UniProtKB/TrEMBL annotation:
Active-site residues per Swiss-Prot or TrEMBL entry: H117 (pros-phosphohistidine intermediate)
Subunit-level organization: Homotetramer.
Domain Nucleoside diphosphate kinase-like: start-end pairs: 3-137
Domain of life assignment: Bacteria
Leading EC class: transferase
GO molecular function per UniProt: nucleoside diphosphate kinase activity
Name this polypeptide is given: Nucleoside diphosphate kinase
Main location: cytoplasm
Species annotation: Flavobacterium litorale
Entry cofactors: Mg(2+)
């Protein structure tokens, strides 16, 4: 079933550099409604679980260390066609390939430290949202 929600994280690199406000502004100006929001931190175990699909990839350990090194912002976003439109808004995984006007073009510094996460399917959006937010934290 298609839904109109997606899940995002502002990653530790962007939080460290003070870009929470700038990124949330780009998100809301693009027409997304924030329906859940928190500043939190992933444990190493959380990061391993969240990115388990990449556990066989050569960058997995680096990714887990990076994602657990500091605070993140987790959020659930609502909009028609949320998953696909948010992937467009964040831009390519590698900021060198990210289009003008995208969040990663503006704020990402490398393939590994690329400022934001966006769910890649409705199914994963639901799984990732439930990973971070209890039902009473979702509006
Ligand atoms: P995305 O975050 O665009 O969905 P992904 O799911 O393929 O990309 O990978 C998850 C994260 O892992 C990505 O945001 C950054 C990191 N990553 C992916 N490929 C990488 C690589 N070749 N080298 C270093 N980090 C990588
Ligand atoms: Mg992905």
């Amino acid at each position: 079933m298609a839904t109109n929600r997606t899940f995002t994280m502002i990653k530790p690199d962007a939080v460290e550099k003070g870009h929470i406000g700038g990124i949330l502004s780009m998100i809301t100006e693009a027409g997304f409604r924030i329906v859940a929001l928190k500043l939190t931190q992933l444990t190493v175990a959380d990061a391993k679980e969240f990115y388990a699909v990449h556990s066989e990839r050569p960058f997995y350990d680096e990714l887990v260390t990076f994602m657990s090194r500091g605070a993140i912002v987790a959020a659930i976003l609502e909009k028609d066609n949320a998953v696909e439109d948010f992937r467009t808004l964040i831009g390519a995984t590698n900021p060198a390939d990210a289009a003008e006007g995208t969040i990663r073009k503006k704020y990402a510094t490398s393939m590994g430290e690329n400022a934001v996460h966006g769910s890649d399917s409705d199914e994963n959006a639901a799984i990732e949202s439930a990973f971070h937010f209890a039902g009473r934290e979702q509006f």
